[in-house]
Amino acid sequence: MSKIALVVGASGITGSNLAESLISKSWKTYGLSRTPNTEIEKLNPVAADLLDIISLKQALADIAPTHVYITTWMRNDTEAENIRVNSLMVRNLLDVLSEKGSVEHVALVTGLKHYLGPFEAYAKEGFLPETPLREEHPRLDLENFYYAQEDEVYAAATRDGFTWSIHRPHTVIGKAVGNAMNLGTTLAAYATICKETGRPFKWPGSSAQWNGISDVTDARILAEHLIWASTTDAARNEAFNVVNGDVFRWSRLWKRIAAYFGVEPIGFEDKIRPLELEMNNDSDTWKQIAEKYQLREKELSRLASAWHTDLDLGRPIEVMTDMSKSRKLGFTIFQDTEESFFDLFKKLSAAHLIP
């Protein structure tokens, strides 16, 4: 039977890279989002609102996917609202697809907030896990929309008989515009502003993150991991961490990024200096840069998510994840992290998103 993929959130970092990889492997691929991705060749765009079940039924009327990849979420003001909205999105989708009886596997992308806590209590004292992070770590005694999303998948799998996989990447590095969590592009925009204005490239985070060991997830690695887990019997009905496979220290990488953009790096000095404050007045500066270099995106907020970068780089502990579970089951793909960043910067430049 031919494989038919439905990528939910195909306009984002994870979804767009996943769609490209599926298409390269000759899967018939549909990309669902409120504003469909029309830039990927051979991707079948589907416009729908996951919170509107009538919209979903109409959009999916003639689509019967075998594999469903959920790579999207919606940010809200409180965790209680995050739980309500994001669990409803998953529930609506799986309820509509249930009527078709075509789904064989559902893969859900969450992240390290599974271990570090939701936005309201992210990496706070009293809730800090042992690192490296391992999949068997119990859920925190905190409300968390990732847990609610997982529970919706588990319930639908029990009802409909499909298999599932949960994927927990660290910070995802890849090209996307308008993404809510985009550290790589945020740093590229910040470095571009620093170069254009003569400002130093200041480290915004904590001493622990500056000096400690970390890892990240290249969107291309995540795409391959999603496809692997959804087509490998031994990986079904399991939750997995997924990162590049190497580790690094920001104290080195920060200087390497600064050298790439030709700006002066300043490391951790005496306290956290949030990037959100540093870039707070840069919207007009970015518009001027965009006009000068004829860039495609004039709105800085569509490229940079400083608030999320501050969350990641301001954590009071070093954070790295254990990949042993995937390795033992046969996933051996590896990605050099420095190359992840430099590949991204080259793509952003080629797409006329940075000079």
TrEMBL record:
Gene3D superfamilies per the UniProt record, alphabetical: NAD(P)-binding Rossmann-like Domain
The coiled-coil segments of this chain are none
**InterPro entries referenced in this protein's UniProt entry, alphabetically:** NAD(P)-bd_dom_sf, PRISE-like_Rossmann-fold
Span of domain PRISE-like Rossmann-fold? 56-355
Q: What is this protein called?
A: SDR family oxidoreductase
- What organism, scientifically named, is this protein from? Pedobacter jeongneungensis
